[in-house]
Amino acid sequence: MNRAVLSLTMSVVQTMVERAPRTTSGERNRESVAGAHAPAFLSVPGLRFQEEYVWLLFLASMDVMLTWYILEKKGGEEVNPVARVVIEAWGLWGAIAFKFSLVLFVIVACEWVVRRRIRSAVFLVWFSLVVSLSPVLYSGILLAYHWLVPESAL
């Protein structure tokens, strides 16, 4: 009995291996991006720009931390009017929820666009990274300026 089950299992595995596509994961990913096979309606395919999304999350986190530091420790003001309203109404937790809901929207938009137009999705991902980098750089420049120039000289 055990030999029969083992033999049947081995033949099924061998058949599956023989019928499996002979591509690497990178080739499979490029094929799916090119439209070789569309995902089913309720399927959850892998993310296409995982490394870029990690950077997007990192920049969003840095933006929230630097903004909160400037607002609380340095007495600064929020220049984004929408973020200012959110911060005045809900504080730090509102700022965090607002920022990461925007990041989630960008990720969903990029994943939706990449299934239709790869070049547009690549542009959208890199554009969102540049846009996310700008407040981090601006906050860093402000902090460096206030560190280098004493308040008495202002």
Structure explained in plain terms:
- The chain is mostly helical.
- The protein folds into two domains: 1-34; 48-154, no CATH class.
- The chain is built from five helices and no strands.
- It starts with a helix and ends in a 6-residue tail after the last helix.
- 10% of the residues are buried.
- Mean pLDDT is 81; it is low at 23-28.
Keywords:
mainly alpha, 154 residues, 2 domains, 76% helix
How big a fraction of the residues is strand?
under 5%
**Total count of strands:** 0
- List the quaternary state of the chains: single chain
Major sheet: size, sense and barrel closure? none
Number of domains: 2
Number of discrete helical segments: 5
**Low-pLDDT ranges:** 23-28
Q: Kindly, what is the distance between the CA atoms of the first and last residues, rounded to a whole number of angstroms? A: 88 Å
Please compute the radius of gyration using only Cα atoms.
24 Å
Order of helices and strands: HHHHH
What's the overall average pLDDT, rounded? 81
Q: Identify the overall geometry.
A: elongated
Q: Helicity, in percent?
A: over 70%
Structural class per helix/strand content?
mainly alpha
